[in-house]
Write a structure and sequence with these properties.
The structure is a single chain. This protein is α+β, with helices and mostly antiparallel strands and 245 residues long. The protein folds into two domains: 2-75, Arc Repressor Mutant, subunit A; 100-240, 2-Layer Sandwich (Endonuclease, Chain A), CATH 3.30.870. It has ten helices and nine strands. The strands form two sheets. The chain has a seven-stranded mixed β-sheet, with helices on both faces. Helix 1 packs across helix 2 (13-25), helix 2 packs across helix 4 (41-53) and helix 3 packs across helix 4 (41-53). The chain is elongated. The relative contact order is 0.10.
Length: 245
């Protein structure tokens, strides 16, 4: 789990393993580190160099010995903040260089279980905005840990509101009783009429996310025209439905 989170923070799989092993061992030699991490010594040398450049592993001289030690883990958070600040600083200039005129729709395709998570993570890139969603019952049944323990908390922190149209099932009624606390407004419709098997999300003023658990796939379509057309369809359906009681 820790290796996975470090990879999300920008380290490679092997960098994560070497850093955590070094953190666990304290001052250590390349030979011991390679043995503990189960990585070839020649590869560990390269990984150590990379981690030193990132400021995450330090070098200590003890007599004729060269030992390595992990730096304070808080440096990872510090590095990420520095990287974020640097990107935010140049973002307006980067956007001004981009030609959005007559741009063709861009499509990203994701596979397997994390496909759904990847699409939902993308919606978190647009704080203080609104997501419009057609919500299938299947999404509530699968991957509850991701939604309850990660996604909803992140969405609330970023003040992203949701309007959702969902099938009127017992599970959905229970789930959407938390609407107010979770910055969400839902309208339920008879499952006999509304029985979709994929989730559709409109967000970011130009993006359409489509997710399917059973097929293990996700799509992100970036197109202002497709987004606006689907938004009009959503609002037409939304305005025709009564408020939940």
């Amino acid at each position: 789990m820790l290796e996975k989170e470090l990879q999300n923070a920008g380290l490679s799989e092997r960098e994560s393993r070497v850093y955590l092993t070094c953190l666990e061992m304290g001052e250590t030699s390349i030979a011991k580190l390679a043995k503990k991490a189960q990585i070839k010594r020649t590869t560990v040398y390269l990984l150590i160099e990379s981690l030193q450049e990132k400021g995450l592993i330090g070098l200590i001289k003890k007599g004729n010995k060269t030992l390595y030690v992990s730096e304070d883990p808080r440096k990872i958070a510090e590095k990420m903040e520095q990287r974020k600040s640097a990107i935010e600083k140049i973002l307006p200039e980067l956007l001004s260089m981009t030609n959005f005129t007559n741009i063709k729709p861009r499509i990203k395709y994701f596979e397997e279980k994390r496909a759904v998570e990847d699409v939902y993570r993308d919606t978190l890139l647009y704080p203080d905005q609104e997501i419009l969603s057609w919500f299938p019952a299947l999404l509530v049944q699968d991957d509850k840990d991701f939604f309850n323990d990660y996604y909803i908390k992140k969405r609330l922190a970023k003040k992203i509101w949701v309007k959702a149209i969902a099938p009127d099932t017992a599970d959905m009624q229970e789930y959407f009783r938390r609407d107010k606390a979770e910055l969400r407004q839902t309208k339920l419709i008879s499952q006999a009429i509304f029985n979709i098997e994929v989730g559709i999300l409109l967000y970011g003023k130009s993006k359409v996310g489509i997710v399917s658990y059973e097929e293990g796939m996700g799509l992100i379509i970036e197109s202002p025209k497709i987004y606006k057309s689907l938004r009009n369809i959503f609002e037409l359906a939304w305005n025709s439905l009564p408020e939940n009681k």
